[in-house]
Amino acid sequence: MAGYLIVFLGGGIGAALRHGVNVRFARWLSSTYPYSTLFVNVSGSFVMGLIVGYFALKGERAESARLFLATGLLGGYTTFSAFSLDAVQLWDRGQTVAAAGYVASSVVASILGLVAGLVIIRQLAPAIQD
Fold first, then answer.
1. Cβ neighbours around 84 below 10 Å, total
2. Judgement on whether residues 35 and 60 belong to the same structural domain of the protein
């Protein structure tokens, strides 16, 4: 149960950090290009690399810290860092076809999922607006 609380706390902080980045970028740039999302995805992936590399050296002794930082904080900040880690782990294990398939299917299926959700809501819009 403690693990869930650790992830919960880290996730809340990560989500607040992401919101802060979005607000800052909106103030700095008046562009429709999603610079803040790009920044969050790249910076989150970079930090995930630092965390995973560090905890690989530390071993299993730091499970609570790993849960707080990797699963909680970065999970709230961006799930792209977890996606990046999964893809690199497949690649590192020599599963290059699986890694490429994972990347391609994740991107395509996620976009299709979003489009499907939009289509459904747009179809239901008259009933929702009432």
1. 19
2. yes
